[in-house]
Amino acid sequence: MLIPNGGKFRKVRKGKIRGVATSGNYIAFGDYGLQAQGHERITSRQIEAARQAMTRYVKRGGKIWIRIFPHTPVTRKPLDVKMGSGKGSPEFFVAKVKPGTVMFEIQGVDRATAAEAMRLAANKLPVKTRFLAREEA
Question: Which CATH number fits domain 32-73+89-133: 3.40.190.10, 3.30.1310.10, 3.30.300.30, 3.90.1170.10?
Answer without folding.
Answer: 3.90.1170.10
